[in-house]
Amino acid sequence: MRPVEISGKRLGLREVTPADVDALHAVYGDPATTEHLPFDPRTREEVEEIVAEAIESAGVQPRRLYVLAVTDLDGGEVIGVARLHIEADHPHSAEIGLGLRPDHWGRGIGTDLIRLLLTFGFKHLRLHRIWGARSPANTAAQLAMLVAGMVEEGRIRHHVRVNGSWRDSIVHSALEDEWEGQRDT
Ligand SMILES: CC(C)(COP(=O)(O)OP(=O)(O)OC[C@H]1O[C@@H](n2cnc3c(N)ncnc32)[C@H](O)[C@@H]1OP(=O)(O)O)[C@@H](O)C(=O)NCCC(=O)NCCS
């Protein structure tokens, strides 16, 4: 396996390691982070399992799952996590997901991270389509995806079950040919 290590202007993306568990728990263990996500805040044990599965999936060929630590280039601290999952039946297409530690929100980092994920997916993995699904109420994710160039393409009705109720998702996507014309990372 060739480990992923790329950087943009402010952020880096690299493979997760067991040493990242506390930093990733600070992201996904926080109820503010999971407010619009279809799961409850993760326990430390759950984060440990996620990291172990991520490390295992990194060795699978062909590789389909990338779970990457998001680092602040100014100091190297892990401030978030990003996920890119290549579809088994449509290997030109991948779904992305991301989460940042709440004390880093609102400074354009989420937008930068999405741009970096698009660069990784289109330039390094040669994907054609990259998409993400968000809760209709997730305004920060909506704006970050739109500003990064991900077009809003539709609504999946009753996509996920959250706290005993059905919830729709809004899908955004970017296509390689559109991205080629506007990338700046
Ligand atoms: C979604 C997330 C990554 C966005 O990160 P971020 O660094 O705060 O995003 P940005 O600073 O790039 O903000 C993007 C836009 O949303 C706006 N915004 C940020 N937080 C907002 C909020 N809570 N409500 C409304 N708008 C918000 C910003 O002002 C910015 O708009 P602008 O470009 O016009 O200034 C972050 O909020 C997060 O980790 N959320 C929890 C996990 C999550 O929801 N992941 C996405 C699943 S699809």
From TrEMBL:
Keyword Calcium listed: no
One family name in Pfam for this protein: Acetyltransf_3
Ranges that cross the membrane: none
Listed GO CC annotations: cytoplasm
GO MF annotation list: protein N-terminal-serine acetyltransferase activity; protein-N-terminal-alanine acetyltransferase activity
Record keywords: Transferase
Ranges for domain N-acetyltransferase: 11-171
Keyword hit for Glycoprotein: no
Name by which UniProt lists this protein: Acetyltransferase
Native organism taxonomy: Bacteria, Bacillati, Actinomycetota, Actinomycetes, Streptosporangiales
